[in-house]
Design a protein that fits this description.
The structure holds two protein chains of two kinds. Chain A contains nine helices and no strands. The longest helix of chain A is centred in the last third of the chain and has 21 residues. Chain A is globular. Helices cover 70% and strands 0% of the residues of chain B. Chain B is built from ten helices and no strands. In chain B, helix 3 runs antiparallel to helix 4 and helix 7 packs antiparallel against helix 8. The chains are: A mainly alpha, B mainly alpha. At the A-B interface, helix 5 and helix 6 of A face helix 5 and helix 6 of B.
């Protein structure tokens, strides 16, 4: 189950970036999903002040660092994300078939960061046209992102610390 | 009313009645050529069950050519979804209607297209959405009953072979 943060301004800004710069948009979406209470305020401040590059780099640094705690970014569960129903509900009456098909694909192939961003956009009351465009942008970026494993989160290394502690005790 | 439109209406009525095996048989009839479809529709008027049986047998017999479209689903169904645009869909329903786009076989596509032509006369947009949902809900059943599978040749194969022979 995805937990919403409910920050409409941040989400709108990220959606706007996603349309033009997919790599940065993906990094921001990843940060929005992955950051904990500790790192999130800083990220939000950077995004709201328009420093998207810095915010994206910060998000990626945290996501790829083995030294910090963060939330996971998992792939779709078996049967896809059930939450995508809300997005389809908005897109269906709009009549953009390409976007509808894309949303269905994201349901089974997308990861949590992408789905969370779409859900938040729906929650923020964005227009169906914008959501459809974001879905298309995500879908266009999806193969490259999966190939580079750009949205893979490095888990914090807990084992090594323990080993070090034990080693210290021994000496 | 053309034969294929009439056939689509009969399928829709069978859906409403809940006769799902009749739906399967009549859907198979959607692959028949115009002449056969006329015969099926004429029989449906007089003796309904004879017509249903003929519709199933035409698809099963290798002696009739079938019309199997080679179309892009999205472009083919775009006007249908355009008509369904105003209908409000809630939750699961939207997903079921969207899934038709991915999973529907050729006779179902053709059925939806023909049914969409009757909107404003016998059919309302809500009915169109309802039948899409019906198809999605019965997907496994329809696949197991072999909707869209036929014996013999499709008319396009024949035409291709003729064109090749001519060159």
């Amino acid at each position: 189950m995805l937990k919403l943060r409910r920050r409409p301004e941040v989400v709108r800004a990220i959606g706007g970036v996603y349309l033009k710069e997919p790599f940065l948009g993906k990094a921001l979406a990843l940060g929005y999903k992955v950051l904990t209470e500790k790192g999130y305020p800083r990220f939000e401040r950077l995004v709201l002040s328009g420093q998207f590059g810095e915010a994206g780099a910060y998000a990626l640094a945290v996501a790829k660092s083995p030294a910090t705690l963060k939330f996971g970014n998992w792939d779709a569960p078996r049967g896809g994300f059930k939450e995508m129903v809300k997005v389809l509900e908005v897109l269906m009456p709009h009549g953009d078939l390409g976007a509808v098909e894309g949303a269905l694909r994201l349901k089974s192939e997308g990861d949590e960061a992408e789905v969370l961003l779409l859900l938040e956009l729906v929650e923020a009351g964005e227009s169906p046209e914008t959501i459809a465009r974001v879905v298309r942008a995500m879908l266009a970026h999806l193969p490259l992102d999966r190939k580079l494993q750009g949205s893979k989160v490095v888990p914090p290394v807990v084992e090594k610390k323990r080993e070090n502690a034990e080693a210290k005790e021994v000496t | 009313m053309r034969a294929k439109e009439r056939l689509a209406l009969e399928i829709f009525r069978a859906m409403v009645r809940g006769d799902r095996f009749s739906v399967v048989a009549l859907l198979q009839g959607m692959m028949a050529l115009r002449g056969e479809q006329k015969a099926i529709v004429a029989l449906l008027e007089e003796r309904y069950h004879e017509g249903v049986a003929l519709s199933a047998q035409v698809a099963a017999s290798p002696w009739f050519y079938k019309e199997v479209g080679r179309v892009d689903r999205k472009t083919y169904l775009a006007p249908v979804y355009e008509l369904a645009r105003g209908v409000k869909m809630r939750g699961e329903e939207a997903e079921k209607v969207a899934k038709v786009l991915q999973e529907a076989t050729w006779p179902e596509l053709r059925f939806l297209k023909q049914l969409a032509k009757r909107i404003g006369m016998e059919v309302k947009p809500e009915d169109l959405v309802w039948s899409m949902r019906w198809l999605s809900e019965h997907r496994e059943f329809l696949n197991r009953m072999g909707v869209g599978r036929y014996a013999g040749k499709s008319i396009w194969e024949v035409k291709d072979a003729e064109a090749e022979a001519a060159t």
